[in-house]
Design brief:
The chain is an alpha/beta fold. Helix content is 28%, strand content 24%. The chain has 2 domains: 158 residues, Lyase, Ornithine Decarboxylase, Chain A, domain 1 (Beta Barrel), CATH 2.40.37.10; 219 residues, TIM Barrel (Alpha-Beta Barrel), CATH 3.20.20.10. The strands form 3 sheets. Strands 4, 14, 15, 16, 17, 18, 19, 20 and 21 form a 9-stranded mixed β-sheet that branches. The structure holds pyridoxal-5'-phosphate (PLP).
Length: 433
């Protein structure tokens, strides 16, 4: 079971110093809860890896993992940068008062209006993904003074060991400029010669939930080799995110900060071998910061025992608040909040309340006997849960609560039923307009 779990002497789950059952009582379930100190510790561990390697650069939290104003405030407080992927995330960062110079903007299909909004919002660095974006950004900058910092995203052609849907660095990818066909070189020439742009360097992101350093090191080496082959001295190399975490006891990743330290050392060696000046290095971890800090709290409801087949145990959330198991068979572990280490009594399939057979949170979970009304906590759900939430079946998106030093605070209000219809407009029947 996850080693950071805290329990009191009655074996009840504690999150950030507060009883999980008290949080459920105060804020209702389903509920997203974040242990803020766990996130801070990971942010600090990444920064320490940079210090240990004597490496300049930035740790940019990949906000796609979990985005809200409160999170951006914590990120700013810890001195991290932000990596954003939409106008909505940029808007949120501005609203949170985040220092926009420390923001990078990723994504594979930024429109003219996205790029205009990014420039007008003062986004520090735009990570260019394709030729259209180069062209559009040139248009955006046409009537403006100064230069926009840009980085070119390239596809290093590295396949990391992870699920197909979360692989982005292999050649057959929708992201970034291809190396072999010469796209990356052409983009480099265009960006270098564009007076409205200041080219800082290159970026690559090879995938997500990666446990070993080899893929990262290989991608780093490819970027260094590429720059050397163009006789280009980059100011920045951005090596993306993807550092894996343990979702269940079966996962045994190296610590994310160890992967990063190995990566930094490897890039330092590579650049030294090529006789290049050491560029700043940027990384973009998302899951490794938000994931282990997050708990999804649910109330147990109905059950269905099928003799000789299995038991389904249903909770009051599901695929709307955590799509990952349905989307890419992600594994999780859960505990009974009032009896964390209780003697397992049965195997259950933990399912949600959505009208889909695929609405499964955990395929096979051992739990003590539960009663309707008991509280279940699914662990390590902080990344890509809330940020991918939907209103499927017209279920409202649950609230998000931050907990730290024994105090809890609502940071995203849960949606009400009235919120669900607040964007609806009555249909005026034809002929009656
Ligand atoms: C460009 C980029 N950077 C960073 C990340 C964050 O990855 P992770 O949350 O696995 O660290 C992603 C996720 O897919 C990404 O596409």
């Amino acid at each position: 079971m996850s080693n950071h779990l805290q329990v009191n002497d009655q074996d009840q789950l504690i999150i950030g110093g507060v009883l999980a059952t008290d949080l459920a009582k105060e804020y209702q379930t389903p509920l997203y809860v974040y242990d803020v100190l766990t996130m801070r510790k990971q942010m600090r561990a990444f920064k320490k890896a940079f210090d240990q390697a004597g490496q300049k650069g930035a740790v940019a939290y990949a906000s796609k993992a979990f985005a809200c104003q409160a999170m951006y405030q914590v990120v700013a407080e810890e001195g991290l940068h932000l990596d954003l992927v939409s106008a909505g995330e940029i808007f949120t960062a501005v609203a949170a008062g985040f220092p926009m110079d420390n923001v990078s903007y990723n994504g594979n299909n930024k429109s003219l209006s996205d790029l205009t909004f990014a420039v007008e919002s003062g986004v520090g660095t735009i990570i260019i993904d394709n030729f259209l974006e180069l062209d559009l950004l040139h248009q955006v900058m046409a009537d403006r003074k100064g230069q926009q910092n840009v980085i070119l995203r390239v596809v290093p052609g590295v396949s990391a060991h992870t699920h197909d849907y979360i692989q982005t660095g292999q050649v057959d990818s929708k992201f970034g400029f291809d190396l072999e066909s010469g796209q990356a070189k052409r983009a480099y020439e265009l960006a270098e010669n564009d007076q409205s742009l200041h080219l800082l360097g290159l970026s690559a992101h090879i995938g997500s939930q990666i446990f070993e350093e080899d893929g990262f090191e290989l991608a780093g080496q490819k970027l260094v080799d590429l720059c050397a082959s163009w006789d280009y001295q980059p100011e920045v190399l951005d090596l993306g995110g993807g550092f894996g975490i343990a979702y269940t006891d079966a996962d045994q990743p190296r610590l994310p900060e160890e992967l990063v330290l190995a990566l930094l050392n490897s890039v330092q060696e590579q650049t030294a071998q090529k006789g290049m000046r050491q560029p700043d290095i940027c990384i973009e971890p998302g899951r490794s910061i938000a994931g282990p800090a997050g708990y999804s709290l649910y109330t147990v409801g109905s059950r269905k025992d099928i003799p000789g087949v299995r038991t389904y145990l249903a909770v009051d959330g599901g695929m709307g608040d955590n799509i990952r198991p349905a989307l890419y068979q992600a594994d999780y572990q859960a505990v009974l909040a009032n009896n964390v280490h209780g003697k397992p009594a049965e195997h259950v399939r933990l399912v949600g309340k959505y009208c889909e057979s695929g609405d499964v949170l955990i395929q096979d979970q051992e739990l003590p006997v539960t009663e309707p009304g008991d509280l279940v906590a699914v662990l390590n759900t902080g990344a890509y849960g809330y940020s991918m939430a939907s209103r499927y079946n017209r279920n409202p998106v649950p609230a998000v609560v931050f907990v730290e030093n024994g105090l809890s605070q609502l940071v995203v209000r849960g949606e009400s039923l009235a919120d669900l219809t607040s964007h609806d407009r009555p249909y005026q029947l034809p002929g009656k307009w």
